[in-house]
Amino acid sequence: MRKRVSAKHLTTDVTARHQVRADILGQLFSQNITQGQALRLLRLRLLGFTQERFAQVTHISRKTLSDLENDRGNYSVDIVNQAFKPFGLKLTIAPVDLMLMKQILENK
User: Fold this and answer.
1) Contacts of 23 (CB under 8 A, 6+ apart)
2) 1 in any annotated domain
3) For the chain, how many structural domains are there in total?
4) Does the predicted TM-score (pTM) go above 0.70?
């Protein structure tokens, strides 16, 4: 039996949505969650979409989305970027060392 997406986790306030996205990215960058877990949290908390609906919007199959969210498979950068695009995100090369990332961002 499939679980329904709950509207209680959906964030509608614009400022709160930016904070939710920042919090999820912070968890991802600090390696507390995986890329797939981040995608799932973004989908549910920012859009409130089912996998089926999100797959339609992003033009990827529901199975591909499921694989991405469960960190399975070896998908191209294009597919991963397609999934993250609704959140204003894309894959990039970033330092593994968080201190180096902070230093780079502060010098910008």
Assistant:
1) none
2) no
3) 1
4) yes
